[in-house]
Each structure stands twice: as C-alpha cells, then as structure tokens.
C-alpha cells in the first residue's frame, strides 16, 4: 500500500471510482444497451423480412409472367382454332352455294331445253298445218274443184311425206 501512497493513489478513491464505473456500466447496460440491441435486432428482423418478401415478390412475379405467357399462348391457339373453323365453315358454305347454283343451272338448262323442244314441235305442227293449207289451196286451184275433207287430208299427208323424204335426202 505504501507503493500506492508513493504514487499518490488513494485506495478509497479508486474503490469509489470502480463502484461508480460498475454502476455506470450497469445503468448503461440496462438503459442504453438493451434498447439499442433490441432496436438493432428489430431492424435486422425487418431487413430479413423485407428480403424474404422481395424474394416472394420476385417468385410471384415470375409465376405471374409464366401464367401470362401461358394465357397468351392459349388465347392464340383458340383464336387460330376459331379462324380455322370460320374458314372451314366459309368453304363449306361456298361449296354448298356452288353446288346449289350448279343444280339450279342444270334444272334451268333442262327446263329451257324442254321448252325449246316443245316450241320446236309446236312450230313443226304449225308448219305442217300451214303447208297442208297451202297444198290444199294449191290443189284446189290446180284441180279447180273441192274434194271432201278425208280425201283432202290423205292427199296432203302424202305430199308432206314426199316433202320430208326429199328434204332429208
């Protein structure tokens, strides 16, 4: 102790300083260190949660983008199917219209041909009648007499038959 006295150190004062220092460390630990440590821990936890949330958000974004791409692809496939169906329907309708038009044209052609044949037959009948009347008139003038209808018809039919054979030869 004398050594301490030689240097001018008072042990009572050192002991009081040590007690004061220990008391100050205890108070700072209770009042300052724990709240700061809690604040740092809370801040660390918030940062970790933020990082986790950012990772989850990135994952959700990637899933949403993949889902968006899938929806777009499905929509394009459906649109292509609708277009193909519309083309097929239009093609079928065009073929049906074309077939119907062909059938109507054939019916019209057949009808026209039968009408022409009927008109031709009627014209031939009228021509025969006109020729018969002309032959009768000519015969009357040549013979200068009137014959009965049956004889007249037989004579005309004979002349018409002669005209047909000379015309076809």
Question: Would you spell out the secondary-structure blueprint of this structure?
Answer:
Elements: H1 2-7, H2 11-143, H3 149-168
Walk me through the structure.
Belongs to the ATPase B chain family. One of its GO terms (cellular component) is proton-transporting ATP synthase complex. This is ATP synthase subunit b. Helix 2 packs across helix 3 (about 150-169). The chain has one domain. About 95% of the residues lie in helices and about 0% in strands. By secondary structure, it is mainly alpha-helical. The relative contact order is 0.03. It has helices spanning about 1-5, 10-145, 150-169. The protein contains 3 helices and no strands. The termini are far apart. The chain is rod-shaped and about 195 Å long.
In short:
Helix content is 94%, strand content 0%.
Average pLDDT value? Answer: 87
Task: Work out the strand percent.
Answer: under 5%
- Give the H and E element order: HHH
| Gyration radius, in Å | 64 Å
Note the overall shape.
rod-shaped
The CA-CA distance between the termini, in Å, is 174 Å
Major sheet size, sense and barrel closure: none
Helix content: over 70%
Low-pLDDT parts are: none
- Supply the number of structural domains: 1
| Quantity of strands, as a count | 0
Tally the helices.
3
Secondary structural class: mainly alpha
Protein traits:
single chain; about 170 residues; mainly alpha; about 95% helix; about 0% strand; rod-shaped
